[in-house]
């Protein structure tokens, strides 16, 4: 007769893992009501200025942002912040939240992080998922609260980074489909091309030392700044 090898502990661990996965899917879903769809992160300006005109150029733009932006800033920050939340280290949380605010090179990028962070705080409060008040830094940004939500959902750090990177890519492609325009099949081709690069970016981000952090994206910063006064816009500035 066959024997059952799964223990109650195994079943509990699998159940927790399933809930963590679903929690991550909820967190990166376009349906999450925090307004991420309203921002283009300089991409709409890149279209207007003729820097990005087609599928191939968009693919290269996104690969560059991933390599010189996310892998140097948001993704390694998520590692540090999620660890700090797990340790209830309010000082470290506040320091990295402040550091991240200082890296935002335009009013538009700063406003996006602040507004998404505030919206996520409001949502988590309504879901009764906020941490203790003394742990939440003043003007908690989106990355900071995303890290908390992932920790609260028992999402492993590496999966947190993959989920965040995936949400970023989906949002950027949604921008392109509305403003370039880009067909949905073309968007899927870009996704297929960049999936391995998301994994590579996470690998790199998890190994970065503190002195290596900071985005190197002058083009994106310039595009974001110019977007603030762009005559015709679909996205917020």
Bin the helical content: 55-70%
- Radius of gyration based on Cα positions: 19 Å
Fraction in beta strands: under 5%
> Number of helical segments?
10
- SSE order: HHHHHHHHHH
Count of individual domains: 1
The CATH homologous superfamily: Urease accessory protein UreF
CATH architectural category: Orthogonal Bundle
Give the N-terminus to C-terminus distance in angstroms.
67 Å
Structural class of the helices, strands and pairings? mainly alpha
CATH topology: Urease accessory protein UreF
Q: What spatial form do the alpha-carbon principal axes imply? A: globular
Biggest β-sheet description: none
Give your account of this protein's structure.
This is Urease accessory protein UreF. Pfam families: UreF (PF01730). InterPro entries: UreF, UreF_sf. The structure is a single chain. This protein has a single domain (39-227), classed as Urease accessory protein UreF (Orthogonal Bundle), CATH 1.10.4190.10. The protein is globular. By secondary structure, the protein is an all-alpha fold. The protein has helices spanning 8-28, 43-48, 55-70, 74-86, 90-103, 107-126, 142-152, 157-179, 184-207, 218-227. Helix 3 runs parallel beside helix 9, helix 4 (74-86) packs across helix 7 and helix 6 (107-126) packs parallel to helix 7. The protein has ten helices and no strands.
